[in-house]
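Example (one chain per record):
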Amino acid sequence: EASERFARTANIDPVGVSRQHVHWLEQAAVCAQQGGDPSAAVVHWLAAASLAGQVSDASQELPLLVSCARVLGELRRNDEAESTAEIACQRAQETGRPNLAAAAAMILADLCMDQAELERAGVCLDRAEDLLDATPLHRHHARLARRRAELAVAQDADDAEEVVQHALALAKRTELNRDRCRVLALQAICDARAGREARIAPTLESAMEPLREQGSSAALAEVRLSAARAWLAVDKPELAQAAAARSLVWAEESGRVALRLQAEALCDRARAMLERGPSGAIDRTIDRLLDVSIALASERDLDILLARINGAALELLAGDRAFVL
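Predicted structure:
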C-alpha cells in the first residue's frame, strides 16, 4: 500500500519533473521490494532512473540502476539484469565513481555465479577489484572478498578456507554484519568438507543468531542455503532439507526467484539422499507441510489464506510430529 501511494504521488505532476519525483519513485520501489513484489520494484526503479536522467542527476540515476540490476537478477531476468548492470558500470567509470562501478561489476559476477559460469564470475570479480584498487578500504572491498569466498567454495578450491578467512576478517574490520554472517556460513561448508562435523552446528548458529535478532530475513535465507550445503556434505539430509525448506518458504513469500530455485534444488538433493538411505523412504508429512507453507507464503487474500489453513489443519491432524499454528 505504501508503495502504491508513493507511486501515485510521483505521478501527480503540478510543477514538472523534479528530484522529489525521483525520490518518491525510489521509495515506491523500496516498499514494493520489502512487501514481496520485486517485479513492481523493478518498474519503479526504472521509472525513477529515467526521471533522474531527465533532471540530469547522475548521482541518483546510477545507484537506481544498480539496485534495479540486483533485483532483476533475483527475479532471474538475467539478460535484463546483465545489460542494466553493464550500463551502470560503464557510466560510473566514465563519471569517476569507482565504488559504484565495482558494485555493478559484482552484480555481474553474481549473475554468472547463479548460472554456474564460475570462470566468468572470476573475471567480473577481477574487474571489480581493478576498479577498487586505488580506493581506500571501504565496505565494497569486504563485499568483494565475500564474493571471492563464495566463488572459491563453489569451485571447491584448494585455498577456499584461506579465502573465506580473509573475507571474514574484512567483514569484521568494515563492520558488515550481514556479510560476516554469510561468510561464517561458508566456513561451515569448509568445515564439512574437511570432516570437522562437530564445528558445523556452532558455526551455523553463530551465523544465524545475529540475523534473527536483526530481522535480516534475506541474509538469513542465504545463510540457510549454505547450511543445507554443509549438511549435505556430511550426509545429513534431514538437516539439509529443513534448512533449505525454510529458505524456500521465504523465497516464495518475497518473490525471490533465483533463491527459490536454489532452495528447490537443495530440497530435491536432500530428498533423493533420504530415499537412498537405509529405510528407503521419507516422512511425506514433512513434504506436505512444506507444500502448505509455500502455498500460505504466496497467498495474499485473507479469506483464501484462512481456508487453506483450515484445510491443511484437518489434513495434517493425524500426521506424525506435525502441527499447524
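Caption: The chain has a mean pLDDT of 87.
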